[in-house]
Amino acid sequence: MPVLTSPDIANKFKERWLAVFPEDQVLDSAPLDDSLTSLHWLQNFSIISTDPERPNAAGPGCPSSLQHHFLRRLGFPRTGTDSPSSPPAGDTAASGMSLHPGSPFTSGSDSQRFPNCAHPTPGYPQIPLQTSPQVEVDYKTNPKVKPPYSYASLICMAMQASKQPKVTLSTIYNWITENFCYYRHAEPSWQNSIRHNLSLNKCFKKVPRQKDEPGKGGFWQIDPQYADMFVNGIFKRRRMSANQYSNSSASQRPNKLVPSYDSIQDTCSFPGVGSKRKHLPSKSNKPVRATESPLLVMEANKMDLLKGDFDLASVFDDVLSGNCSTFEDLDINTALSSLGCEMEVSIHGRQHPAGLGRWCGAGDVMSPSQHISHHQSYGYLDLSAASMECSVSMGELHASQQHPLLRQQQLDQDQPLQGQHHLQHFDEPTSLFPEQSREAVLQPWEEIKEEAQAIPLTLDQGFGLYEGFFTEMPPWE
DNA sequence: GGATGTTTACAAATGG
DNA sequence: CCATTTGTAAACATCC
């Protein structure tokens, strides 16, 4: 298939875009600095607020930018309000705290990684309250609001934050109390719940302490078989019938790295994820839980996208109509360039050979809207990867730190796409910890000294957006 | 004795 | 309505 690089396509795309977003006209003519010609700024995308209302505190090194603009258009949430808590500036105690909801365990200094970007906040988790999206709940310092994470999620966060393949109960306690003020002041019964959860939840596996290891109690880890039940550290157990449970043991269940749109909708509703209770507890003395999550907002955005708030597909459809028969032919770089938004799609410095996006599916090639309306299991893989690349790995993360799908992408670049079932072929064991998933194959849960994996939420947001946008798969398939 | 771990029971919320 | 999930409480056992 020839890649359409025709300026006509680009112009038409631009026209359609501006028809939908006439306010972008100014962007079109805005002068661009060098930072806008690559996606280096996207290193910060998951960290720096993309909130348009927020001043561009990221500084000149962080584009203000068209790319942000474009990605916002694509439904990326405003990460400035994504995070579950927002410790005050200078609070350095949250070293293990999330930069992103759902991955409250991102480690490393982003200010070091992105020296040009002065973060207005360290990027601690914040969650908008349902009543006011502008109000952010600082779970790290606010003792009144119970974090909307299930205990399983909290345990998982703590485990990942520890950077160790196995953690002790006290480590879990400590992490939770350090990062969620509520539990510092709460009755210690929550610890009982933690213990109860560890014991009861099959996802958690106890690792007995070696006889020569001093200390109390054993270690706990996430059972690799169930690692894919956690997305960014958030427990996402699908409701399954007893029959399903009996017929789909973890060993039988094919590991799928990409949650379906359905599953994302059902279970990745971020703070709320894992905590299915969306209503306030009936007991009046119960703490208030924030119930609306960034991912919920994101889902809303996605739904807006699908419902016409912005019909990206229609834009592409219109652009493509009469010009090419398949969406995969679109050189989106050209299209985006027409908007002054240069998308440098590369994987670790390598230019993506085939443009940004590629549709994969088992049937005839369809237009995006057809993909959506027909609910086929198609995936716009490279666009997804690009989004992840944007948020995660632009020259910063090693392959071992990437989401498995990213590595899959790389593999696929070395091996051309085989067949049309690309999305369904993820033979690599799934793990909460990407590099550990690989380790688990050889030496399960061996001590990993490498810096903890950092999977900003936006990575999965990227998944969530694109996979959810364009694909739908039955759970656990 | 306190921390840890297991088990049981129950209630509330939720989804099919 | 029922099954499932989640949270909570409690009793009990084990270990350091």
UniProtKB/TrEMBL annotation:
Keyword annotations: Activator, Cilium biogenesis/degradation, DNA-binding, Nucleus, Transcription, Transcription regulation
Region of interest (Disordered), ranges: 75-127
Domain Fork-head, residue spans: 146-240
Composition bias type Polar residues, residue spans: 104-114
InterPro entries, A to Z: FH_FOXJ1, Fork_head_dom, FOXJ1, TF_fork_head_CS_1, TF_fork_head_CS_2, WH-like_DNA-bd_sf, WH_DNA-bd_sf
Main localization, broad class: nucleus
Molecular function in Gene Ontology: DNA-binding transcription factor activity, RNA polymerase II-specific; RNA polymerase II cis-regulatory region sequence-specific DNA binding
Compartment(s): Nucleus
Listed Pfam families: Forkhead
UniProt DNA-binding region: 146-240
Cellular component, GO, one term: nucleus
Entry's Gene Ontology BP terms: auditory receptor cell stereocilium organization; heart jogging; heart looping; motile cilium assembly
Family of this protein: Belongs to the FOXJ1 family.
Protein name: Forkhead box J1b
Protein species of origin: Nothobranchius furzeri (Turquoise killifish)
